[in-house]
Amino acid sequence: MWKGINKAILLFGLLFLTFSAAAQVNDPFSGAGFGTFQSYDFTFQRSIGGLSAAITDPRYINPVNPASYADFYVVQKARFREINKSKRMQWDAERGDSVEVFVSDTLYRDTAIGIIKNTSFQTSIDLEFYNTSNQNLLTQSSNGSLGYLALAFPLPKLGGISVGVMPYSNVNYNVLKSQNIDSLGQVDYRYTGNGGLYQFYTGIGMKYKNLRFGINARYIFGSIQLSEALLLNEQNNALGTRSTTLLTVRGTRFDGGLIYKGQIADNIYLKAGAFVNSSATLFAHTDTLIETIFFNSSGNMAGLDSIRSASLQDKASTMPLGYGGGLIIEKPENWMFGIEYRAEDWSGKQGLISDIPLGSSWRFSMGGQVIPNFKGGFFEKLNYRFGAYYAQNYVRINNMPVLDYGMTFGFGIPIIRPREVPNSTIDLSFQVGKTGDIRDNLLTENYFRISLGFNMNDNSWIFKSKFY
Q: What pLDDT digit, counting tens, does each position of 289-299 carry?
């Protein structure tokens, strides 16, 4: 069993290195704050508009709300009627004596009829396509990478545990700004950044009656390289300068969550969920290199001499408290609909990358899923998913908030395996959206994202082998 898991992790690790090496994305919005934050949502949640606060399903890992891990160990119960007959002594007035009679008592008991102990390994391959434009220029870029690696397994009689690693934020931008100065002519300022932060998380979820609760601990790490270059284009043999700073970042953050699941009609359930992301401080060690640069025979910038300056103290940046909540109504193996709201207030916070002002961010999303016939043919058995979202970014440009909105849709393709209670699935998510507005921010970004998720569930791992 574990040899197979190790091989799978190694394979997807190699895919991650391959896709990361091919990254060519240019995202100007990632040049502020902590970069462009990556969603904690996995492929399933992305396809339904990012709903996660109230999502709990033994087939899917949901690291946004750790209370969901509780359903990786589920005791299935059903209500049975039990009739007990007993003998009693009863006074008989006609006889003037006590007589023995039979009395029936009816009891209703919630009796365990089965246990789900599910182990899940999930990963994805993500593709992104961007059209970025301002009032004068349109650029196109794309990126491919491994989305996440996560494992969840049952905690007998208590709930479940999950561990995983995924991107936290990405920094990929290349911005050129030109200015005419009387004594120098045209001066170009080139700003570039690349790298990003990652997170390793581990969490536990438990259940008490209809209430699930859980907690995550996240370790955030990574490196970001920032470069600023000044070029004098119209001066023959003129030299320029370039400052390159490497930020090595580390920090921790905690999440807590609750989910309540109650039955409101025959096989129809209402779920209410909420989560909190703790405030956190990220520490960055800075290493700066200042160079005199020129253009070599190939037309590329090259360093002539340099001065290296490494800071002795870490740079600290604080992240605010975040929170979210949502509602879902569902009929298992048939349909599901939900809404959700998330928010963080970045006002007054100092980012790692630049001094661009930050503000409050929020996101409203809605989505759902329909399964025509869980036991039908291939197309009837497919999980059809859809969603939409409207959000405000934490970055401010020209003192104006940056809006982000889009639509999502996708499919879940179930894979039925022997002796398996939950289904493994191949999940597809498509996201079409827009960030910013040329009129208000002088910059807009249209994007199209694809996520191919592999959701491998197996409850046979916990069965004890028998020999006959």
A: 887 776 554 54
- Strands 322-331 and 335-345 turn out to be antiparallel
The Cα–Cα gap between 229 and 441 comes to 24
Report the distance separating Cα 390 and Cα 28, nearest Å. 20
Query: What average pLDDT does the segment 97-105 reach?
Result: 70
Nearest in space to 447 (alpha carbons), one of 170, 149, 61, 192: 170
Does the pTM surpass 0.70? The reply is yes
- Report how far residue 369's alpha carbon sits from residue 367's, in angstroms, rounded to the nearest whole number: 7
Per the structure, how many domains does the chain have?
1
The enclosing domain of 176 has a CATH number of 2.40.160.60
**What tens digit of pLDDT does each residue of 352-373 get?**
887 788 889 999 999 999 999 8
Of the listed ranges 27-31, 263-267, 393-397, the least confidently predicted one is 27-31
Q: How far apart are CA 274 and CA 320, in angstroms?
A: 17
In a domain, 92, yes or no: no
User: What is the rounded distance in angstroms from the CA atom of residue 19 to the CA atom of residue 146?
Assistant: 7
Q: Write out the two tokens for 134.
A: 């301002």
- Examine residue 47 and state whether it is found in any structural domain, yes or no: yes
Residue with tokens 């102990």: 117
With H, G, I as helix, E, B as strand and everything else as coil, classify residue 27: coil
Task: State the residue range of the domain holding 61.
Answer: 2-76+106-462
The DSSP secondary structure of 223-246, one letter per residue, reads EEEEEEEEEETTSTT--EEEEEEE
> Is 157 a domain residue?
yes
Measure the CA–CA gap between 225 and 155, rounded to whole angstroms. 41
Burial of 142 (0-12, 13-18, 19+ CB in 10 A): middle
- 275/256 Cα distance (integer angstroms): 6
Q: How far apart are CA 75 and CA 398, in angstroms?
A: 55
Task: Say if CB 100 and CB 89 are below 8 A apart.
Answer: yes
DSSP labels for 77-123? EEEEEEEEEEEEEEEETTTTEEEEEEEEEEEEEEEEEEEEE-EEEEE
Is 24 a domain residue?
Answer: yes
pLDDT for 40-79, tens place per residue?
899 999 999 999 999 998 889 999 999 999 998 876 655 5
pLDDT in tens, 121-138: 999 999 999 888 876 777
pLDDT tens per residue across span 215-236: 999 999 999 998 888 876 645 5
Task: Show the tokens assigned to 375.
Answer: 């036991």
Q: Name the burial class of residue 392, with classes exposed (0-12), middle (13-18) and buried (19+) by CB atoms within 10 angstroms of its CB.
A: middle
User: Which distant-in-sequence residues (6+ apart) come within 8 Å of 374 by Cβ?
Assistant: 333, 334, 381
